[in-house]
Amino acid sequence: MATAEYGSLPFDAAIAYFRKKINLPSERWTDIWRQQNDVAFTVAGALKTDLLADMRAAVDAAIANGKSLTWFKSEFKNIVKRYGWEHTGDAAWRANVIYGTNMRQAYNAGRHQQLQQFEFWRYKHGDSLYPRLDHLKHDGLVLPKSSPFWQVWFPQNGWGCKCKVFGETAASVKRKGLTVSAEPEIKYRDWIDKKTGELQQVPVGIDPGFDYAPGTSSPVERVKAQVAAKPKLAERLPGRIVPSAFSTVKGVTADGIDALLTKLEAPQLDALNGFMQAKATKTIVVKQTEMSRGKKSAALAKPIAEYLGVDEYYAQLKFTSRSPARVGGFTAMSWEHIVVKAKANDKLSTVDMAKVQQVASEVVKDAAENKGPHIFGTTDKQFKRHWTVSELVEKRLGESARLISTWLHELGHQVHYYAGAPDYPANASWVTYYAATNKYESFAEAFTAWMLAPDALKQWQPELYSYLEQQIDKATKARSKTR
């Protein structure tokens, strides 16, 4: 059953909610009111387009990759310094407000979407050290999801509010001994904006501007008018190739993978982006000890189950291996994700993608000249190859660099499945020794070479280059897989 919790784990609905917003410079936080926050990203006082875009990039990274408040505070200070922004309030306090509000509202919007499968919703107070009594009195409140109450009182209900809503079925209400409550009365009070003198009706117990359910509104006319009256905002956020990644290694994130993949040649980058946009293949990065089936993997079962949208009971089967020491990554036809093994000290930020591409080209060029450390075949026809593209990348550039070629290799399997798992062309030669194992590894290694060393591959085997190009296009358009 689908669940979600606010914390370091990103989930798709929250990410999608935030990315649908438009950037809107504003002088004060009340310029964007209630549901307008569903469609507008704003930071009060941030009037420069580039400043707002950079701030948004930092918030986006926090939501998509589960970045900590400490990380965001550091980014906030860097952005402020870069633009010489004279903001109001202490820097740490301001960063905390921006981080906490956007993270929670993105989560709550996604949560609202998830809860639609439940007949009843239950309010849970956030267990604050100094509880707000109006919030605390709703703790345990159970109402049908259609109740008007949720249109006003769906968290978050104020600055720093950590209250949540949980889903219940008729069966779980009975099993837990819960009682469906009578419809609560929502009282209102006058609130005056001291800066403008504008009078607003605000529900008692809810901070001004928070009386709405995040993610439920359509674009507001006032937002449309504001955007139309201003020059078109220059979006500096690059399009994401990897929508998100669940990683237990701090230095290996979706942002880190994206940063390297954007260095690919244009045809390869376009093809990869097209496939990922169509399939949104997810990424799991775990350490070897977490890849074994034991206590460490068991501890990850719940968050990974939530990330993948699967039952917790099956989660361990989707990121563990019986021989973790022997694999660098793996995937399966029935999955919509790939798994990559990493070490605790791996850092994608240290990887030089140009050098990775050079090493991949070396693998292909050596194959073209039939030279390499591994010999196989018959006496009459011997093949001399490198073991894999990733093996030479790691040997030349280190373990962190191997991660990107391994990621491409495993993604290559998913492309192959979607393309119908065709046999390797009879007239094509293997790129590596491992590629000769079977048609699956043949395709994955060739795909990795096509991505990282397209010129070398095209010069050596133009037919194989074209074949891969066709299969990737076919995979992108496909709706099912074959093994």
Quick recap:
This protein is α/β, with parallel strands linked by helices and 483 residues long.
Summarize the helices and strands and which ones pair or pack.
Elements: H1 12-19, E1 22-23, E2 40-41, H2 49-65, H3 69-83, H4 91-114, E3 120-124, H5 133-136, E4 142-144, H6 149-153, E5 164-168, H7 170-175, E6 188-192, E7 199-203, H8 221-228, E8 245-247, H9 254-261, H10 266-279, E9 282-287, H11 288-291, H12 295-308, H13 312-315, E10 329-331, E11 337-342, H14 353-368, E12 374-377, E13 382-385, H15 389-397, H16 399-418, H17 439-452, H18 454-460, H19 462-477
Parallel strand pairs: 1-2, 8-9, 9-11
Antiparallel strand pairs: 3-4, 3-5, 6-7, 10-11, 12-13
Walk me through what this model shows:
The protein has 483 residues and is α/β, with parallel strands linked by helices. It has helices at 12-19, 49-65, 69-83, 91-114, 133-136, 149-153, 170-175, 221-228, 254-261, 266-279, 288-291, 295-308, 312-315, 353-368, 389-397, 399-418, 439-452, 454-460, 462-477, and strands at 22-23, 40-41, 120-124, 142-144, 164-168, 188-192, 199-203, 245-247, 282-287, 329-331, 337-342, 374-377, 382-385. The strands form five sheets. The protein has a four-stranded mixed beta sheet with strand order 8-9-11-10, with helices on both faces. A hairpin with a 4-residue loop joins strand 12 (374-377) and strand 13 (382-385). Helix 1 crosses helix 4 (91-114), helix 3 crosses helix 4 (91-114) and helix 14 (353-368) runs parallel beside helix 18.
